Amino acid sequence: MTEYETRKETGQDAGAGRDTGRGRTKDPGPGTRQGDGDGTGDGAQVSTGKEAAGAPEMAIPELVIISGMSGAGRSTAAKCLEDLGWFVVDNLPPALIPTMVELGARSQGNVARIAVVVDVRGRRFFDNLRESLADLDNRGVTRRTVFLESSEEALVRRFESVRRPHPLQGDGRIVDGITAERELLRELRGDADLVIDTSSLNVHELRAKMDARFAGDEEPELRATVMSFGFKYGLPVDADLVVDMRFLPNPHWVPELRAFTGRNEEVAAYVLNQPGAKEFLDRYAELLRLIAAGYRHEGKRYVTIAVGCTGGKHRSVAMSEKLADRLAAEGVETVVVHRDMGRE
Q1: Quick check: 196 and 208 in contact, CB under 8 A?
Q2: pLDDT band for position 252 (50/70/90)?
């Protein structure tokens, strides 16, 4: 595996169905925090030059510009930042970057970190990049540029595998487009704060490098959806993990409980007091703790845990609620969805 990373002489490091409507979150999330990871979160203020007289200056959002060779992994890098809570704009014309930063500054902290993907798909707009960067410098905007590089052999292989032409090859060959693009981006590459050679990196390895630079000291967030469902209505197509609660007695056959759902205290108590129910909850929560650690290591940010019973009304609902509580207590941002509750 080869990697080439450079930083500018400033020494800056890249920092870092039916829904019940019930969510469990441990904090507002990384997308709502300002100035994480590179020293820009010290309350620095910026004037965009358009505020009304006497109005307070607005906090500037962090800005990362993602560029590089077509096929080198720009989309993967952008998705990684999006998963880390950044507001990501793909293929934004460079002339609009200062406007995007200004809008972020006016968002009252709702858009605290912005990542913009700039590449040769912008064609004539790409010529405006130097002017836009100069404008940002004049406004005092602290920006970082990530450049994704790759060897000619690797890029040709990737374009051939997806059977798509290079955006600059025209009537020529793929290598002609790569050569033209490399020349066009030469100056931007030289000014980049971080250059990553993805020639021998897979998707997971590239995500790990972006996490290392932009996640800061925090462990990557994992967001979980716990979904109850009824087997008679079919398995959830988006489930990562499926567990079956039909080993427990069905409250449907208890007349005084039949009309209620698993969110009812009496039904939940009935389900959890059955032999094996609490033991299952303890052991499955422990298993999910192990799985969650592996997901974080592999860069997986979202997991859907499907908990099923016959109709999705009693057992699966009660167990989903308890399981979500366990996950939230472990620091996992959790949302509960009862897909089939009320469907009967």
Answers
A1: no
A2: very high
Residues 145-188: pLDDT tens digits? 899 998 888 999 888 888 888 888 888 888 988 998 888 888 88
d(CA 76, CA 80): 6
Residue type, 282: D
Residue 288: predicted pLDDT: 92
**Residue 182: closest CA among 72, 102, 79:** 72
Q: Positive or negative, the Cα torsion across 131, 132, 138, 141?
A: negative
Question: Can you read off the two tokens belonging to residue 51?
Answer: 């505020």
Structure tokens at 103: 């809008």
Look at 106-110, 288-292, 299-303, 307-311 and tell me which has the smallest mean pLDDT.
299-303
Interatomic CA distance for residues 267 and 249, integer angstroms = 11
- Name 242's bridge partners: 306
Q: Following CA atoms 323, 329, 332, 334 in sequence, which dihedral angle do they give, to the nearest 10 degrees?
A: 50
CA distance 177 to 190: 20
Cβ–Cβ under 8 Å, residues 331 and 9:
no
Beta bridge partners, 225, equal: 304, 335
pTM: 0.53
